[in-house]
Amino acid sequence: MSDKTLGYWYLTLAMVLVGSTVVASKIAAAGLPPFTATALRFALALPCFLVLLHVSGERLPRPGWRDGALLVVQGLAGTAGYTALLMAGLRATSALDAGVILGTLPVVSAVVAVLVLGERPRPALMATVLLAGAGLFVLQPAGRGAGSLTGNALVFGAVLCEALFILLNKRVRIAMSPLALSTLMSAIGLAASLPFALAERGSMAAVTPAALLAVGYYALLPTVAGFLLWYAGTARVGGTEAALFTALAPVAALLLAALLLDEPVGPRQFAGIAFVLAAVGVSARPAARQAQVLPPTP
């Protein structure tokens, strides 16, 4: 097996793990309050990243006040905000819909880069926005309950948090390895979510073993193992080519939700994923985007 083919396998496995977080989050959300689940995720993941940091011989950088502030905002949005909003949204909507919505991340990142960071819009941006918008629109047919619409809105809020996380990383000036960044983000995510988790103690009566197992899976496999697989893959494959593999995450989420949660896949989900994958395909063309490596987890 060639080195590049091995990289493809690493990226595929990483994106399957990312897709599985939707199922894990759905199970966790049914038995744990959102901030409690978020704090548990990072409480389990952080020691693993610290061990990897020690084994690799790397050290955490000491950023200045500007970079430090950006890193804190990244952590609040892309770790605590992302996980808590995803968990809260999945209490009200299906894992199938959430998987399709999370697939819009590359497109949302491009739009945020234009609107917030003032980057120059690409010619293909309008096409990707229309395609992704169509994918979200077909998930909202008339007659659906308000709870499901609220859940979808919360999941989309999680996507916005992740897009902000990715784009703020481009504004951090200090050189930082992916492992150091993941360690810092886990620490910030834990610190940010812990006070809210303590406030949720009154809701802990309904905690289920399945929810605890789901959080443990989320922390150790998609978060830690997904990190190792993604960066092992991107070390063998170019950034633009690797970005194409992000399209596998919503597909994996759809299939796993149908298989493990027994959620029925209907025409809405098929149409939604088709539009979203088309948008990802357009945005990931080498001529349509700059090389960018998207982390598998915030």
UniProtKB/TrEMBL annotation:
Xref: InterPro entries: AA-Vitamin_Transporters (IPR050638), EamA_dom (IPR000620), EmrE-like (IPR037185)
Keywords: Membrane, Transmembrane, Transmembrane helix
Membrane topology category: Multi-pass membrane protein
UniProt domain EamA: residue ranges: 6-139, 150-282
Subcellular location: Membrane
A Pfam family the protein falls into: EamA
Primary subcellular site in the record, as a coarse category: membrane
One GO cellular component, as annotated: membrane
Coiled-coil positions: none
Residues annotated as transmembrane: 7-29, 35-56, 68-90, 96-117, 124-143, 149-167, 179-198, 210-230, 242-261, 267-284
Family designation: Belongs to the EamA transporter family.
Cited PANTHER family: EAMA DOMAIN-CONTAINING PROTEIN, INNER MEMBRANE TRANSPORTER
Name of the protein in its database record: EamA family transporter
